[in-house]
Amino acid sequence: MGKRIPNRKPQPLPKIKDSVHVVSLSSYTAPEVIESKRYDWVGYGDDNMYFQYLIDRYNGSPTNNAAVNGISEMIYGRGLDATDSEIKPKEYKKMKELFSKDCMKKVCYDYKMMGQAALQIIYSKDHSEIVEVSHMPVETLRAEKALNGEIKGYYYSPDWSEVKPNERPKRISAFGMSKDGIEILYIRPYRAGYYYYSPVDYQGGLQYAELEEEIANYHISNIQNGLQPSILINFNNGTPDKEQRDMIERAIYEKFSGSSNAGKFILAFNDSKELAATVDPIILNDAHQQYQFLSDESMKKVMVSHRIVSPMLVGIKDNSGLGNNAEELQTASLLMDNTVIRPMQVTILDELEKILEFNNINLDIYFKTLQPLEFTDLTNAISDSEIEKETGVKRDVEETIDEQIEEKE
């Protein structure tokens, strides 16, 4: 059995015409897939760090964070189950042993956040059986260049930013491409124009996630700098040399700065009182409205990119009351479950079934839904297995399900 992988020179002051700058957000949102002749692996992003870019957008944007967390939890639901678990108890037990709860939660999380996920497949010594399946952080992997249209391996590094040009990361064969003790099963949906990796489904909202970050960073910086200079200190007895000016500035800074004196000061040295410095503030009367608009717009666009029908489904409170919109929330929940959650579950389940098939395990597996029983739609559920997949309820409570069907009819 294989082992588990577990100080710059001072610059002159700018001229007036060069002193006004436009700060633009990063345009680094579309992932670039790069096949370099120097390496055997395929880079993801122009610096091979696109996965880290996605992690940064997750950590920095509260809306994006809530959306990823909420949807990944919905994908996992209440865990894996099988409609024929009672008929095939031994196979069901083996399936539960292979796919641990912790592993499946991480796979669902990676799949939503990164657009793909990976599993480490560990075989028996004779390669006749898969004995263990564990989660592999997808950001640690890079695809090997395809050979005859097939990706036959992946390269592993715990931190790709530390990989040196002459360094060769560890290669791990792709699932079904070798007789090695360990292989990688890479889970990703089809995306037109992408062969090695799949962009996230919320690709169009990444710029707005970054905008949400920048707004927060601006306000934090503004507060930390005291919002605006609060003191203008004029010295009207001539201008001392630079060393004396720095010494005076340090002394005043130590006196007036700190957590209890958050405001900053302006220090001016003048040859006379008549030549004293003046301060002309630039006042933006509706600044708070502009920032509120940008904040609200960012939040909306990020949720649109995640296809969130109602923000309350991922724990974001909107302006409407919950009690008066229960029917609307139910409709939104059903719509999101059918158009967003189920397709992602299907892609993951299709790959998991390949593992079960290798071990000669034939089960009808599914993710148990988080949907409340009264939110489930049984209109098209005909067989017992279809009803179980919709509700997550075993057939020993058929009376309750029958009541649900009668109420809907």
Give the topology, please:
Layout: E1 33-35, E2 42-44, H1 50-60, H2 62-76, E3 80-82, H3 89-98, H4 101-114, E4 117-123, E5 130-136, E6 141-143, E7 153-156, E8 170-174, E9 182-187, H5 206-224, E10 229-235, H6 242-256, E11 264-269, H7 287-305, H8 326-358, E12 365-367, H9 384-391, H10 398-408
Parallel strand pairs: 8-9, 10-11
Antiparallel strand pairs: 1-2, 3-12, 4-5, 4-9, 6-7, 7-8
Helix pairs in contact: 1-2, 1-5, 2-4, 2-8, 5-7
What do these coordinates show?
The protein is α+β, with helices and mostly antiparallel strands and 409 residues long. Helix content is 38%, strand content 14%. The chain has ten helices and twelve strands. The strands form four sheets. Strands 5-4-9-8-7-6 form a six-stranded mixed sheet. Strands 1-2 form a two-stranded antiparallel sheet. Strands 3-12 form a two-stranded antiparallel ribbon. β4 (117-123) and β5 form a beta hairpin. The radius of gyration is 29 Å and the shape is extended.
Main β-sheet description:
6 strands, mixed
Strand order of the largest sheet: 5-4-9-8-7-6
N-to-C series of helices and strands: EEHHEHHEEEEEEHEHEHHEHH
Q: State the secondary-structure class.
A: alpha+beta
Global shape = extended
Distance between the termini: 56 Å
Low-confidence stretches: 7-24, 258-263, 397-401
Distinct helical segment count: 10
* Average residue pLDDT: 80
Cα gyration radius (Å): 29 Å
Helix content: 25-40%
The overall strand count is: 12
Strand content: 5-15%
